UniProtKB/TrEMBL annotation:
GO terms under cellular component: ribonucleoprotein complex; ribosome
Signal peptide: none
Keyword Ribonucleoprotein: yes
Protein name: Large ribosomal subunit protein bL28
Source species of the chain: Krasilnikoviella flava
Organism placement in taxonomy: Bacteria, Bacillati, Actinomycetota, Actinomycetes, Micrococcales
Pfam families named among the record's database cross-references: Ribosomal_L28 (PF00830)
């Protein structure tokens, strides 16, 4: 499964983990992606989205209908 938010498009960040001896090794910061089901009245069904914690707050603020319309406008399937 990819660590990508369907609402915000958040993707993993990459960088180095630096140890006490200052040895640098590659590491990756994954977004906090959750699988959530939402009832979408405009579609008349439920949809399952992979959203980050910040994406959940965006849905709470803007509404699921608006967010699903944005996802569909990008050409992404819901």
């Amino acid at each position: 499964m990819s660590a990508r938010c369907q609402v915000l498009g958040t993707v993993p960040g990459f960088g180095h983990a630096i140890s006490h001896s200052h040895v640098r090794t590659k590491r990756r910061w994954d977004p906090n992606v959750q699988k959530k089901r939402y009832r979408v009245p405009s579609l008349g069904r439920t949809v399952t989205l992979r959203v980050s914690a910040r994406g959940i707050k965006t849905i709470d603020r803007d509404g699921i209908d608006v967010v699903v319309a944005r996802i569909q406008a990008r050409g992404e399937k819901v």
